[in-house]
Amino acid sequence: MSPTSSTPEARHGDAGAGRTLGGVRGHVGAPHVSAALVLEGVTRMFGALRAIEDVSFSVAVGERRAVIGANGAGKTTLFNVVTGDFPATRGRVRFFGEDVTTLPGHERIRMGLRRTYQSSLLFRDLTVRDNLFLAVRGVARHRFSFLRASRNGPASELLERVRLTHVADSPVAVLSHGQQRQLEIGMALAGAPRLILFDEPAAGLSPGERAELVALLRDLPAHIGFVLIEHDLDIALRVVDRVTVLHNARVLKHGSPAEIENDAEVQAIYMGERHH
Hints:
Elements: H1 8-11, E1 35-46, E2 49-60, E3 64-68, H2 75-83, E4 90-95, E5 98-99, H3 105-110, E6 113-115, H4 128-138, H5 153-161, H6 177-188, E7 195-199, H7 207-218, E8 225-229, H8 233-239, E9 242-247, E10 250-255, H9 257-261, H10 264-274
Parallel strand pairs: 3-8, 3-9, 6-7, 7-8
Antiparallel strand pairs: 1-2, 1-4, 4-5, 9-10
Helix pairs in contact: 4-5, 4-6, 6-7
């Protein structure tokens, strides 16, 4: 397998760098901001347990980054700290140049941070279209307005983006697992996301669904960066520009997909995990 993802600089040559999805006005980014996310010595402790320790790295605007590591390395805890689900015990989190370390999660969402979770968080009794409508409405400035909003316009673009137009009016409960993952990505794209955190989006997918996920991630708008936690290296290394390896709660190394794929130390970690 040879990684084929393009660089963020090349993708930013595409049109639509200021484009919004789902009919919500986008953010006006400062032109001098080169990093979407900066982590500075981030540590999260649960009692005496260090779930992540002294984690530092940055993600460029528009970059696609994978965070990999064995089970228990601290990957999901890292996401929880970035999104504000857990506060950092020590260290700083900066989002597009602003210190968000102490900001609650909903404030980070308003700034353009999005996330999906390992377990699907969807309204199973509602239709696909209604789920997307609620996602769009939830990040809209006038989300509590009494004016009736259209269920079609904003959601229709997202339906096309994640290739679910043919099941738009089906309840989520009848969707395949892969289609539910596609819907989660669509909901994360609502509004004006600037960086999306994907937590194991390929978990439980069939080979065909994994191919669809790869195509979907590759086709995301060029201005939207993402950070991906994924155990399947065949997927992770095909859709990202850079890779960060976590091991025993700390950053072990960074590199290109090719460098990480051929790294003997990384191979030993993954082979050791498979034998447990």
